[in-house]
Every structure is written in C-alpha cells, then in structure tokens.
Specification:
- The chain has about 525 residues and is of the alpha/beta class.
- The chain has 22 helices and 6 strands.
- The strands form 2 sheets. A 4-stranded mixed β-sheet has the order 3-4-5-6, with helices on one face. A two-stranded antiparallel sheet has the order 1-2.
- The chain is globular and about 80 Å long.
Length: about 525
C-alpha cells in the first residue's frame, strides 16, 4: 500500500499542475461556506464558541491529509453533513465534551489505520446497500429538522429530532419573518444557481447576497436578524491544539462507542465517495490505503482543533468537474481554505446564521435522496424491512441503533441465503467472454460476481453475463452491478446482461433508472 499521490506525481506536467490548482481553488470556494455551516451546526454554542473555527480547521487539516495520504486519485475530504448530528450529541454530552470528542476522534483515527493495515477496506464492500441508504437518509432528515431553528429564527432547543420538533411547535410565536425571508433568499441561491451553471459557487454567492440583504434589513428597517457577530462576537483565525490539562477528568469508557461510530461512519462515507469518483472517472482506488489516509487525517484534525472528517462526495465531484488531475487538487484546496481563513475572518461576523441553515437544508435534501429512498422502498419485502428499520431507528435514536438494527434485520431476512452458494462459470463456446451465473445473488456474494467480471475486462472490451439461472437478487447486488457498469462505460467498454427472468428484469430496469439519477 502507498498513497495515490506518489503514483500520480510520476509523470506530472505543468498542464496537470494548472488544472489541479484551478480545480483546488474552485473546491475551496465551495468548501469555505460549507465548512463554516457544518462547524456551527456540529458544535453547540453553549459548549464552545469556536464552532466556525472547528469547521474550517477540519477542512484545512483533514482536507490536506486525506488527499496527500489517501488511496483515491480524486478524493477530497473535510467536515461532512453525515457527522453533524452525532457530533452535536457527543459535544453536548457532559461525559464527552470538546476534549472527549478530540480523544474519540484520535481513537477513531487509530481504528481506521488498523482497518487499513488489516485490509478491512475490502470487507466493507459487503455492507448491505439498504442500510447505507437508510442511515444516510435518516441523517439527512435529522439534519434537515435541525436547520429549522436558524432558518426561521425560532428561539427553540432540543438535541434529538423529536425534541426539536416539539420545541418548534411550542415556540412558534418566536418565528421571525425577516430571518425567514433572508433564509429563503439563500435557499433560492443554493438550489437555483446550480441549475443555471454548476461552475458558479452557489453557496459563496448565497453568503454575499444574504449578508447584503441582512445589512439592509437590520440597518434600514430595524430588523434583528441574528448574525455570526451577534451570536459569537469576534471570530479570530487560528488553530486550537487539544488541551490535555483536563485529561484526568476524562471518562474514557464513554469514548469507546463514539470512537467506533466515528470510525465506522468515516469508513463508509469515504469509500462511498471514492466509489462515486471511480464511477465518474474510471480511476480505481485502494480502499485500504484510503482508510489509512482517513485515519491519519482524523488524528491530525482532532489534535489541531478540528472535527472528525471523511471524504466528501460533493467536493470530490466538484474537483472532478473542474478538471482535477491528481490528489494535489485536494492539497491545493486545503491551502486555499487556509489563506481565506486568515484573510476573511474580519468580515465573517456580518454573515447571517440563516444562510448557513439554507446551505445545509440543500445539503440535507441532496444527502437524503428522497426519490431514491422512495423507489427502493418498492422493492422486495426483505430489503424494504432493512431500509425502513435503519431509517426509523436513525431518526428516532441515532446512527448506532440504525446500523445495528439494519444489520440484524438484514441477516434474519437473508438467513436461508447464507447457505446458498453462487456459481460463476465461463462459457467457452461463446464468441465473446461470457460468464454463466447460478444461484442467489445478494450482499454477501455480490463482490464475487463483480470481481469475476472485472477480471474478464482486463483482456476484453465486451463481456456478457448470463443470468438465466439466478433465483433472486437483492438491492446490494443490483447496486454493485450498476456501479460496475458505470465504471466500465467510462472506459469505453460494454457489459451485457442477458437471460434474467421477468421479475429480475423489472428490478434492473427500475434500479438502473433510480441510480442514474440517485448518484
């Protein structure tokens, strides 16, 4: 194993440097407002007033190490929406707090590094797809609920989703029309601008527009729209290395579950992001080296005053869309965020909090992928049970309950399939390489087929998979085939699936359409 950056720099050209530099700048412009928003929403104001700095430091430190030491050519990391809900809860817990979270982040980093060295990245491929969609949608919904407070100007409280909803209803009289108007203006920017051009950094434009609108409404009309300055005071740029003076008071037993949850979520999200990048570019990634890079990044981020981090799909995709060639795009992005951090903090105090809620509402909607969730809910009862169990438990309790519940239901639902094998044989009489598949295709053995197909593509441009003897196929196996098909098409090659029965045919038709828009 070695970082992807080492291979990428072997034949590095001036043209590649220019492309990476410009792509890094564009990603940094996108990352700055998002990092501020995620920092604010992850850190309770009563716990620390440095939420903004937490978010930006994470983008700088973790963004640098994830790209420099990771196993993906295009992965760009930093604070992500997936962590917001669980980090807020951990920081609000008096048994954890700021120091406890930093230590849990370091522990999670060590776990990720060990996972990489012991090749666990390969095992993560067997994770059931309905659970991934269930908990990401659950986190997205919980994040969405959390933004209503700042978006509407409510004077509300609560840490759990249900508590927040109850608090909003009880404090409906604190609704502020001016705050809501500016929030809608920001939401229109972050949703509408990408439809005009994805090259325009919508979140950055929203910051400027909403800050000007807030200055106008507060100054001329006497509105009281809450800003960063009115809530947090002066925001000073700097790094905040972890203070170990309170180490003797730390309850280390309370950090075990958070460390495991952070490591697990980081592994899932980073490998998902890297897989999306592979689907966009056709470039393979080293899952185990990616875990090592993620682990190192989390240790450094938490020790220097940042938060746990992972690969970010939106920033990774933005880098690719803006011409990124190597992992240096992520390194440059971190450097540009660092420059903006020390150059722009004097003006950050004028930005209204509601615009960050607008940005995260857009992020939560995209993260939840409601249309994909709804369509997947129409599949077989086994997969639906896993999907809904994970989703409901994540929203009502947290990610830990959601994933454990989903895994339990998944293994119970597929108990009889555990003893059914999958046979893959090559049809030597066919004119093109053809694999004949027999048995039940589901999350435990889906990678067996994917690996066999990829092996055939090493020496062929067209491969056929004969599925007439497949008895059943689940969502995870379908997703693996769809992702493989995307990666193959990027390389100009063709995968032909034949012989599946009518039921599986309907699933394929629906799933291909769903994932084409869902990802």
């Amino acid at each position: 194993m070695k970082p992807k950056l080492f291979d990428a720099l072997k034949n590095y050209s001036k043209k590649d440097f220019t492309s990476d530099l410009l792509a890094g700048l564009m990603v940094a412009i996108i990352a700055l407002p998002l990092s501020i928003a995620l920092g604010i929403q992850s850190v309770p104001a009563e716990v620390s007033s440095n939420g903004i700095q937490f978010g930006i430091i994470t983008a700088i430190v973790a963004g640098f190490f994830i790209s420099a030491l990771g196993g993906s050519k295009h992965q760009i990391g930093g604070p992500t929406a997936a962590f917001v809900v669980i980090l807020f809860g951990y920081l609000a817990n008096p048994d954890i707090g700021v120091l406890g979270l930093a230590l849990a982040g370091v522990m999670a980093g060590l776990i990720l590094i060990l996972m990489g060295f012991f090749k666990v990245g390969s095992v993560m491929k067997f994770f059931p797809y309905p659970i991934t969609i269930g908990f990401t949608t659950g986190i997205g919904v919980t994040l969405l609920i959390g933004q209503i407070k700042d978006f509407c100007g409510f004077d509300a409280s609560g840490t759990e989703a249900v508590e927040k909803i109850v608090s909003y209803v009880q404090n409906i009289q604190t609704f502020d029309l001016a705050t809501f108007f500016v929030g809608l203006l920001g939401l229109a920017c972050v949703i509408g601008i990408p439809k005009i051009s994805k090259k325009i950094p919508a979140a950055f434009v929203a910051l400027i527009v909403c800050t000007l609108a807030t200055a106008l409404l507060n100054g001329l009309l006497g509105s009281e729209i809450e800003t960063i300055g009115s809530k947090y005071g002066e925001v000073k740029a700097g790094f905040f290395p972890v203070d170990l003076s309170g180490l003797g008071n730390v309850k280390f037993s309370a950090l075990i579950v958070p460390a495991i949850v952070i490591a697990f979520l980081c592994a899932i999200e980073s490998l998902l992001s890297a897989t999306v990048a592979t689907g966009m570019t056709g470039e393979e990634f080293d899952a185990n080296q990616e875990l090592v890079g993620q682990g190192t990044a989390n240790i450094c981020s938490c020790l220097l005053g940042g938060l746990p981090a992972t690969g970010a799909i939106a920033r990774t995709a933005a880098g690719i869309e803006n011409g990124a060639k190597t992992p240096l795009t992520g390194v440059f992005h971190a450097i540009f965020v660092l420059i903006m951090y020390f150059a722009l903090m004097d003006v950050v105090k004028f930005i209204p909090l509601t615009v960050f809620a607008s940005i995260l509402i857009s992020v939560a909607i995209n993260m939840s992928r409601f249309s994909l969730f709804a369509k997947l809910s129409s599949f077989g009862i086994r997969d639906v049970a896993v999907l809904l169990t994970t989703f409901v438990l994540t929203v009502l309790f947290d990610l830990t309950y959601g994933v454990i519940g989903g895994l339990v239901v998944s293994f119970i639902a597929n108990a009889k399939n555990l003893f059914k094998g999958l046979t893959i044989e090559k049809d030597e009489s066919a004119q093109t390489p053809t694999l004949v598949v027999t048995g039940t295709l589901y999350f435990i053995n889906a990678n067996k087929l994917a690996d066999a197909v990829e092996k055939e593509f090493e020496s062929a441009d067209n491969v056929t998979v004969d599925m007439r003897s497949i008895e059943r196929i689940d969502e995870t196996a379908l997703e693996k085939i769809v992702s493989l098909n995307k990666k193959i098409k990027v390389k100009g090659k063709n995968l032909d699936l034949i012989g599946y029965n009518e039921k599986i045919c309907k699933r394929f038709d629906k799933f291909f359409k769903v994932l084409a828009s869902g990802h």
